[in-house]
Design brief:
Elements lengths: L1 E3 L4 H4 L3 H4 L36 E9 L11 E14 L4 E5 L4 E4 L6 E6 L7 H12 L4 E4 L3 E5 L3 H23 L12 E6 L2 H12 L8 E3 L5 E5 L13 H10 L1 H18 L11 H12 L17 H11 L6 H6 L2 H4 L1 H21 L1 H12 L9 H12 L2 H13 L4
Parallel strand pairs: 1-3, 8-9, 9-11
Antiparallel strand pairs: 2-3, 2-6, 3-4, 4-5, 7-8, 10-11
Helix pairs in contact: 4-6, 4-7, 7-8, 8-12, 9-12, 12-13, 13-14
The structure holds zinc ion.
Zinc ion (ZN) binds next to helix 7 and helix 8.
Length: 418
């Protein structure tokens, strides 16, 4: 558990919902996902580690109910969550992690009351989580377990198995990639969860309830709140009535590389937050989070799976970057200082292009500096938000003046060819 000093949780909690739903709001971008993981070998075959020695607690709190009429304020109803306390703010607010890995920010104004109900917090086991997901998602959904994932889908066995194979391929590649560079990668405490819908319509209805109006026209998203990635079958034809095999799904996906890139992109976000590269609800700059996912997402149509080579030059992103670079100089400082350019649809396309290029350049050419920056990022605590100046200072301490980085990046990218 971390103690959160300084600003109150009430103020702090105004940020996570928009900042950490990595949905992709622009159809034109059709954002993509990806990723990876580790430590299985180091643990002698145990893919999951349990949490440290912390008690299991039940926190009861007041939650606003539904208003009975427009003229009367909503009555509060008592709710409860069981889990472990991740952050306790000085004003009494809490950040609770439940046994499925979901995070529950509870403000001091919600009058939380904590009682210990067992001496040791444990996350749900794979079997318990599997049963909980079936109960939550209901009729029509099946859960397909793999070594490191639970894939919940109503798009049929073929789609579930196809997703599972891609996730595991990414997991292995991600683990190999980072094992050489970042010591002590964390082991996820339980299987990582993906919910994959048969249709975009079902996905959007779920998204609205799960993530509110924040995600918009996403093709997929990772929720830092629930720790799940949520997707839909972009190849479009599988479903309960038209079940396709994994091989048929694969064939379709190779004709639509964005379908592969989306799965990889969101899975990278999830892996990054579950292997200790980043911390959920901490100050994770969007240029870094999105740049990392874009670095891994590149489809490889020469590979049977459609995804193989980590760090392969992303020709689609390079094209967006070149278009941007032809009309104006780079603006690294504003990209780093806040996430505003990613949130505004008018500037998001350029922000993604610039973030991809910056991340690619730093990861490929400034490895030691990049790894040090990443290690510091992984130490950031939940609900401790940095100012724009602090973000720029962290970046410049690692990589030097943003103006120098802009110059070097521009030269480097001019030499890249698809
Ligand atoms: Zn993303």
């Amino acid at each position: 558990m971390a103690l959160c000093h300084g600003r109150s949780l009430i103020q702090d909690l105004s940020m996570p919902w928009s900042q950490y739903q990595f949905g992709h709001t622009l159809r034109v971008l059709r954002e993509i996902v990806a990723c990876l993981c580790v430590l299985f070998l180091c643990l002698g075959g145990r893919p999951f580690l349990h949490a440290a020695d912390e008690p299991l607690v039940r926190v009861t709190y007041q939650s606003p109910g539904q208003p009975t009429s427009p003229d009367t304020p909503p009555l509060h109803e008592e709710k409860a969550v069981e889990g472990r306390i991740r952050v306790q703010a000085v004003d009494g607010g809490l950040l609770v992690e439940d046994r499925q890995g979901g995070l529950w920010p509870i403000t001091a104004g919600q009058s939380p009351v904590t009682e210990t109900i067992a001496p040791q917090y444990t996350p749900l086991s794979a079997e318990e989580l599997n049963a909980a997901l079936k109960a939550e998602l209901g009729e029509g959904f099946e859960v397909f377990p793999t070594t490191h994932y639970l894939v919940c889908t109503n798009a049929g066995r073929g789609y579930g198995e196809w997703c599972g194979r891609l996730f595991e391929r990414l997991h292995a590649g991600f683990q190999r990639f980072w094992k050489r560079r970042i010591p002590n990668l964390e082991v996820p405490a339980q299987p990582l969860v993906a919910i994959a819908f048969a249709t975009q319509k079902e996905f959007q209805a779920f998204q609205l309830a799960d993530a509110g109006g924040q995600v918009g026209a996403a093709q997929g998203y990772f929720s830092a709140r629930t720790n799940r990635m949520v997707l839909f079958n972009q190849s479009g034809e599988a479903g309960p009535g038209r079940a396709l095999t994994a091989a048929q799904i694969q064939k379709q996906a190779l004709r639509n590389p964005m379908a592969i890139a989306t799965v990889i992109h969101e899975a990278v976000h999830q892996l990054s937050f579950n292997m200790g590269l980043q911390t959920r609800y901490a100050d994770n700059p969007a240029w870094f989070s999105e740049g990392l996912a874009m670095y891994f997402e590149t489809p490889d149509l020469e590979a049977q799976s459609g995804w193989r080579t980590i760090g392969k030059l992303n020709t689609s992103r390079l094209g967006q970057y070149r278009k941007l670079a032809s009309v104006r100089p780079l603006e690294i400082r504003s990209l780093i200082a806040t996430d505003d350019r990613f949130r505004d649809p008018a500037s998001a396309v350029d922000a993604y292009a610039e973030a991809w290029a910056l991340h690619y350049y730093l990861l490929e050419t400034q490895k030691e500096k990049y790894d040090n920056y990443l290690k510091n990022l992984g130490k950031k605590q939940p609900l401790q938000w940095n100012t724009p100046d602090q973000r720029v200072a962290d970046f410049e301490a690692a990589f030097g003046a943003t103006s120098d980085v802009e110059l070097a990046l521009t030269k480097y990218m001019a030499r890249r060819s698809p």
